[in-house]
Amino acid sequence: MNTNIWKVDKYVDNLENNPQVVDAANFLRENEVVALPTETVYGLGGNAESDEAVAKIFVAKGRPSDNPLIIHIADRKQLSRFVTEVPQTAAKLMDAFWPGPLTIIFKKKDGILSEKATAGLATVAVRMPDHPVALALLKTCGLPIAAPSANSSGKPSPTKAEHVLDDLNGKIAGVLDGGATGVGVESTVVDCTEGIPVILRPGGVTREQLEAVVGEVREDAALKDQSARPKAPGMKYRHYAPNAPLYMVSGTKKFLQSLVSEKQQEGLRVGVLTTEENHRFYKADVILSCGRRAELQTVAAALYDTLRSFNQDNVDIIFSEIFPNEGVGHAIMNRLQKAAGHKLISE
Ligand code: AMP
Ligand code: MG
Which residues of the chain have pLDDT under 50? Predict the structure, then answer.
């Protein structure tokens, strides 16, 4: 399949009538799948009401069929078509964070969305992305769009159109290239179907931000306890992994360096994932700075690109610094743990 590349400047006016956006919207209406930029990562969009379109998303990504998709909308009025009720907590969260990196789980109306998109669950995950190109595409096609991240399942999520093409060129109808995404980690997923909201996946909106709007917010037990069964089916899968094994290292820079030296002596090509502040302390084959530790949102923005870069550099093993598990650091550590398959070396 020929994969179209539509370059779009996200700052131009009247994006809804932009020829590239209109082209992409037409493919969506024909139940083809196209990748689109959002403020978190690139998504792979398809008509959420069409089994045919949703099946194409799962095939292109190689995504397990029991992992439901997030439905993207441009207008809150679209909700009533496929959601039974909007609880007060959800309404408050939408007022505060939509458009933005917050996905809300609602009870689903049967018979509207493709059952494949919701993996047969009685609930549905919905979000309104905060990106002018995504919003223009959603408005122009007029459909609810199911969109997981636009990467091959298991790989780091794409934060640039090039990442999408690395994984999906020839497998999808096209990609709207709107430049690099902003937040860099996926949306926070919060379940509002049962009273007190529960975070199922940490992400771009922090627990503290949610609590400031709705009071008490809980976290799914699986986020702390690896043996608990996660309520978001996707959280059980390995994700975001670079080709080489990745180890998180808890301890001093000297300790991390000693691990590097030991592996180099064994003849391995060793990578280090660090930050701009600490880069100069290490000697290794490949040393990549992933943002600035003093501003954790820059680490989130650079994380997936950095993980992907290690593949280009052909390292045999990667040691990574760890980050404070608070604020957006909670989402960063959640993704890093998955990328590492929870491998952690402590001093
Ligand atoms: P992705 O689109 O790959 O960023 O993943 C979406 C996340 O939302 C996955 O972890 C899904 O399992 C989760 N999710 C989607 N729909 C639901 C739902 N109805 N209930 C719980 N989790 C969901
Ligand atoms: Mg994903």
Answer: none
The residue nearest atom 1 of ligand 1, judged by CA position, is 148
Residue nearest atom 9 of ligand 1, based on CA coordinates: 234
Q: Which CATH number goes with the domain that contains 300?
A: 3.40.50.11030
Q: Domain range for residue 113? A: 4-236
Q: What is the pLDDT of residue 240?
A: 86
Q: Is the pTM of this model over 0.85?
A: yes
How many A from CA of 9 to the centre of ligand 2?
25
Give nearest CA residue, ligand 1 atom 2: 148
Phi and psi dihedrals of 267, rounded to 5? 95, 10
All residues with CB under 5 Å from ion ligand 2 = 149
Using CA atoms, how far apart are residues 269 and 285, in angstroms rounded to an integer?
6
| Phi, psi for residue 17 in degrees, rounded to 5 | -105, 10
Closest-CA residue to 67 (of 146, 127, 143, 13) = 146
44 and 122 housed in the same domain: yes
